[in-house]
Amino acid sequence: MTNTLVKSGSATAVADAIELAIHEHRLIPGMKLGEDELSDVYGVSRTIIRTALQSLSHNRLIELKRNRGAFVAQPSVTEAHEVFEARALLEPRTAHSAAERMKDADITALQAHIDAEHAAIANGDTGRAIYLSGLFHIEIARIADQATIAAFITQLISRSSLIIALYWERRTALCESHAHHALIEAFRTHDGELAEELMKSHLIDLLTSLDLRSRKSAPASLREALKQ
């Protein structure tokens, strides 16, 4: 199934597949991304793999270490605090703006994200549920119609995925929980102030779910991690 994701054989398709695997926590921070193994997994040349890895390094999802190869990035504790502080500055006001602009079709789209998260949880796929919860936040930024801020939020959520993979301890804080449902109700009634407060509380809850004292170790097998 993995190869069907990159059937075009392009570096962009490979990069997209690896990025999705990172966001879904199938590839976790610190894991080595060997060119030979990736070439075999995706059925493309090492040149294409190398180009894909370069692209991902520009997005800071992976780190290219001289004479050692490519590794999934490992944000520091300091960066973890900075990322969530930045989200706390941007996302509550964005939620406020989204509530004022919310249309029925937007509510339907956000509910679909929640339903997909529920399905992932039911299937025991926590990594995909976290990925979908990130898309929920990005969709709110899109609805707010603030393109520049939405771009920043998208980058921050991408870093958050790595941070959660490294430091997440309290599974009950999964974004799938009541916080998203409460936000949708605020959006449904166009209550910007409530949406802003709910988003603040939600982000605080996410930060407190992290154990910023330790890191999880990476799995040994790249091939096993990329199985779907």
Question: Can you describe what's shown?
Answer:
- With about 230 residues, this protein is mostly helical.
- It has two domains: about 1-75, Orthogonal Bundle (Arc Repressor Mutant, subunit A), CATH 1.10.10.10; about 75-210, GntR ligand-binding domain-like (Four Helix Bundle (Hemerythrin (Met), subunit A)), CATH 1.20.120.
- The protein is about 65% helix and about 5% strand.
- The protein contains ten helices and three strands; from the N terminus they run αβααββααααααα.
- The chain has helices at about 10-25, 35-40, 45-60, 75-100, 105-120, 125-145, 145-165, 180-190, 190-210, 220-225; strands at about 30-35, 60-65, 70.
- It has a three-stranded antiparallel β-sheet with strand order 1-3-2.
- A hairpin with a 3-residue loop joins strand 2 and strand 3.
- Helix 4 packs antiparallel against helix 9.
- The chain is elongated.
- The model has no long low-confidence stretch (mean pLDDT about 85).
Task: Based on the model shown, name its key terms.
228 residues, mainly alpha, Arc Repressor Mutant, subunit A, Four Helix Bundle (Hemerythrin (Met), subunit A), 2 domains, three-stranded antiparallel β-sheet, 10 helices, 65% helix
Short description:
With 228 residues, the chain is mainly alpha-helical. It is built from ten helices and three strands.
